[in-house]
């Protein structure tokens, strides 16, 4: 094979067929004939996003796999991290269609396993009364718990438009998000919580540990594999689309490959030991970002968003950036922590995630109407005849 043929092969691997548009349209609107219905979109939306999340969660499936098959050496765990990382990358690499396929397998299985686990747990607890009589260990403050939960939900919510743009209409996008985040994720939380209240599983509330305690280790491993897979391919896909948008490059695959490589390396050096601290970081720094997006769409654009070809984008939109920074600072001085282990005074009462959201919304709206709308800060320039989405 000639050198030029080899180069073409690598370019096709990294960029896909460059004669055709990227099938996921990372820097453009999704054509109407490529959009998806409610079932497809709801299935693809069971995970959140971010390359750090990718690295944190690979060991959560690699280590139980090694334990189940009795190959718990450090070398074999590293091999499994590499294998699972590559498999998780694979479905994201093939875009929406790849994630849709694995999600259609995962969602029914996880639903059946979750219901089975809850039924067994209620039976072992002596019925509903016995379950309600269980008490928690009190290992986490209420404020921290809220910050972690809100942070993880908003972490997924800020990335949801990467998939919601495939919806055939706004109603499908809304109901898919509601089903995926409120119903789907809450069901998985409930399953782990019920089992964690009944069984002395470690870590507490972990669905796989609960299923092992119920004598369903094989079923638990399958459920765990599918759960983590559908989370991580979402994270890799979101990182790829974000990279394409940030660098204004109409191919997501190079960023998926780069992000997954970073994630796998993070997993290999043991970043999974920082799972709870990672949740804390998400709970402080992601909610203000989601708040800016919501405020911009609801209160500034008032639900009327122009198509991208009718907009001249400014390099830095200072209203959003300053509002985000302000929201983060409020969250930091509420939590009393910059990152886990680095403390600061906490003069602001309340919950970090909620305070960060409120501050970011207020700041963004104030800055938009007092400065950007008056031309004192740069904003996007919308053509007078621009078509709206």
Which terms summarize this structure?
single chain; 389 residues; mainly alpha; Hydantoin permease; 2 domains; two-stranded antiparallel ribbon; two-stranded antiparallel sheet; 16 helices; 4 strands; 2% strand; globular
Question: Summed up, what is this model?
Answer:
By secondary structure, the protein is mainly α. Helix content is 67%, strand content 2%. The protein has 16 helices and four strands.
Written account of the structure:
The structure is a single chain. This protein is mainly alpha-helical. The protein folds into 2 domains: 35-274, Hydantoin permease; 286-383, no CATH class. The chain has 16 helices and 4 strands. The protein has helices spanning 3-15, 38-44, 51-68, 74-93, 95-124, 128-132, 142-159, 161-164, 170-198, 207-213, 217-246, 253-268, 275-285, 287-300, 318-335, 352-372, and strands at residues 311-312, 337-339, 342-343, 381-382. The protein has a two-stranded antiparallel sheet with strand order 1-4. A two-stranded antiparallel ribbon has the order 2-3. Strand 2 (337-339) and strand 3 form a beta hairpin. The radius of gyration is 22 Å and the shape is globular. It starts with a helix and ends in a 7-residue tail after the last strand. Residues 40-45 have low confidence and may be disordered.
């Amino acid at each position: 094979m000639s050198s030029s043929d080899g180069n073409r092969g690598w370019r096709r691997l990294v960029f896909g067929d460059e004669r055709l548009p990227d099938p996921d349209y990372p820097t453009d609107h999704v054509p109407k004939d490529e959009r998806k219905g409610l079932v497809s979109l709801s299935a693809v939306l069971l995970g959140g996003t971010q390359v750090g999340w990718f690295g944190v969660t690979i060991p959560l499936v690699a280590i139980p796999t090694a334990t189940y098959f009795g190959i718990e050496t450090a070398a074999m765990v590293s091999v499994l991290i590499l294998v699972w990382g590559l498999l998780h990358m694979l479905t994201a690499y093939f875009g929406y269609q790849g994630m849709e396929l694995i999600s259609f397998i995962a969602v029914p299985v996880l639903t059946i396993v979750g219901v089975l686990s809850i039924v067994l747990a209620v039976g072992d607890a002596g019925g509903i009364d016995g379950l309600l009589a269980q008490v928690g260990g009190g290992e986490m403050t209420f404020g921290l718990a809220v910050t972690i939960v809100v942070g993880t939900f908003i972490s997924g919510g800020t990335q949801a438009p990467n998939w919601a743009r495939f919806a055939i209409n706004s109603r499908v996008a809304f109901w898919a998000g509601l089903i995926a985040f409120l119903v789907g994720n809450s069901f998985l939380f409930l399953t782990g919580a019920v089992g964690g209240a009944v069984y002395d599983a470690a870590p507490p509330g972990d669905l796989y540990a609960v299923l092992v305690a119920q004598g369903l280790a094989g079923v638990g491993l399958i459920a765990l594999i599918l759960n983590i897979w559908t989370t991580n391919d979402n994270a890799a896909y979101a990182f790829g689309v974000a990279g394409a948008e940030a660098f204004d490059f109409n191919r997501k695959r190079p960023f998926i490959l780069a992000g997954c490589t970073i994630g796998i390396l993070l997993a290999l050096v043991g970043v999974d030991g920082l799972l709870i601290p990672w949740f804390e970081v998400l709970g402080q720094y992601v909610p203000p970002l989601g708040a800016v997006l919501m405020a911009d769409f609801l209160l500034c654009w008032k639900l009327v968003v122009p198509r991208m070809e009718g907009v001249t984008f400014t390099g830095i939109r200072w209203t959003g950036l300053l509002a985000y920074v302000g929201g983060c600072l409020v969250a930091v001085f509420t939590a009393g922590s910059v990152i886990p282990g680095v403390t600061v005074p906490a003069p602001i009462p309340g919950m970090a995630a909620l305070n960060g959201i409120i501050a970011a919304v207020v700041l963004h709206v104030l800055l938009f109407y007092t400065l950007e709308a008056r031309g004192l800060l740069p904003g996007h320039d919308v053509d007078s005849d621009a078509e709206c989405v």
